TrEMBL record:
Transcription regulator AsnC/Lrp ligand binding domain ranges (all copies): 6-76
Organism whose genome encodes this protein: Streptoalloteichus hindustanus
Domain of life, per lineage: Bacteria
Name recorded for this polypeptide: AsnC family protein
SUPFAM superfamilies, A to Z: Dimeric alpha+beta barrel (SSF54909)
Lineage: Bacteria, Bacillati, Actinomycetota, Actinomycetes, Pseudonocardiales
Family annotation (InterPro entries): Dimeric_a/b-barrel, Tscrpt_reg_AsnC/Lrp_C
Pfam families: AsnC_trans_reg (PF01037)
Length: 95
């Protein structure tokens, strides 16, 4: 699976509707409104690079209110949850 983070510039008066429309697109797992350099951040998960190439310019960029996107492909995940799950394999909570 290909994981990507899409930074989205959106029209300020359309952020809620734009975010919901993006969240409803297949392949988009989460959308966050945020403060800072971008208005929305979408987390995307697709099977192939070609799917990502079609999803961002073909679907996300065409949502009304989207002014521009910047896509970052994730190579590896580093999280406490992943680390704890790895070391918990085979352990029982039989106390």
């Amino acid at each position: 699976m290909i994981n990507a983070i899409v930074l989205i510039h959106a029209a300020a008066d359309r952020i809620p509707e734009t975010a919901q429309a993006i969240a409803d697109i297949e392949g988009v797992t989460e959308v966050y409104s945020c403060a800072g350099d971008v208005d929305l951040i979408a987390l995307v998960r697709v099977a192939e690079h070609e799917d990502l190439a079609a999803l961002v310019p073909g679907r996300i960029s065409k949502v009304p209110g989207v002014l521009g996107t910047d896509t970052h492909i994730a190579f590896r995940s580093y999280s406490r949850r992943d680390t704890e799950a790895t070391f918990a394999i085979g352990l029982d909570d039989a106390d």
